[in-house]
Amino acid sequence: MATQMQMAREGKITEEMKQVAADEKLLPEEIRAKVAKGVVAIPCNINHRGLQPRGVGEGLRVKVNANIGTSSTYPDVAPELEKLKEAVKCGADAVMDLSTGNNIDQSRKEIIAHSPVMVGTVPLYQATVRAIKAHGAVVEMTEEDILETIERQAKDGADFMTLHCGVTLTAVERMRKQGRIMDIVSRGGSFIAGWMLHNERENPLYEHFDAILDICEKYDVTLSLGDGMRPGCTADATDRGQLTELITLGELVDRAWRRGVQVMVEGPGHVPYDQIAANMKLEKRLCRNAPFYVLGPLVTDIAPGYDHITAAIGGTLAAVSGADFLCYVTPAEHLALPTIEDVHTGVITSRIAAHAADMVRGVPGAVEWDRKMAEARKILDWEEQLKLSIDPELARKKRGARNKAGEEACSMCGDYCAVKIISKYFDKPQCPCED
Fold first, then answer.
1. Per UniProt, where does Zn(2+) bind (predicted)?
2. Which of 33, 56, 138, 194 has its CA 20 to 30 A from that of 146?
3. Check: CATH 3.40.50.170 for 61-361?
């Protein structure tokens, strides 16, 4: 079974490419050419039934991911399936199953079975949980444990996998020599760095990269090269550890593409606003314009409870500057496992950031959506405004709660509605003498 990239290079237009082209209002041949080049990825595991494929990358609509999954504190998968349903309803293009609770296999299988959107996983989480149960410590995890877990998740239908292949001994040492406030905040990054330092050995994900490519090629899993060295606070952004990892990831992109394996690259993290554009340009340059998947970036560290906003501020600039895929951040970030309400808020907020960037990126239909809203507002067509809203249910609820039924203007302006007043003069027929 050939991968999407391999088929694209053979000149074949797959059904998935046709669906992405229709979704993006582009020609199928345009999508094929981008997939062949590697600047667009279509994560679609051959075992994920019922998937509605999405493209991620150059010239396409900026996509949004929602993180869900069980934890040791909340191990029940049922609430996570409800979060999946809410994320899809709100317009998420992907979900990541980050489960670390009991029955990780069951959680993943159920999420994939119920998900019409692409599903990502982080195999190192499950490998770590299994190692602790089997050997008593993360540092006792074996290379076989890791590769077996990657194969298991690929076989179950994971469309893309975050693998922290760039956390090398060199990157860790450079980070330590320069110094950081937050050290390593990536869960996967911390697991593998701890293993490396304890065992005084190189990262097995890096050393066994060819074996990982064998698995990805077999199931057409898109490799999402994880940013295990991402900054956990704005003071740590764009340091030697982060950039050393990024250089390694660029080299791994080349190796994956030579095998015909699709790749995305993951990025920071917490980044001051004035460094975001430079970070995007560095990734695109070093990774040959591979699709870039970013968490936020969060532009300040002081807003727990409002980090969906700090991430949206950074996400818009990141996407304008080249990022292709935004991982949502919810109001619960840094505080707790997100609720269904947090998922809703996180997805909608990230979609707003993505759409604001789409308008600048020239994505077909993006500017037209805003224009239609403006036209509806001009004539006070409330029903059309509600339909065009990115969150119609919330807009309708607020409109109904603070306005009298049938009221033409809104209760903010009432009788002094600027749109209503000016329309009396701008829209009336001109006197012939004014011609």
1. 270, 334
2. 56
3. no
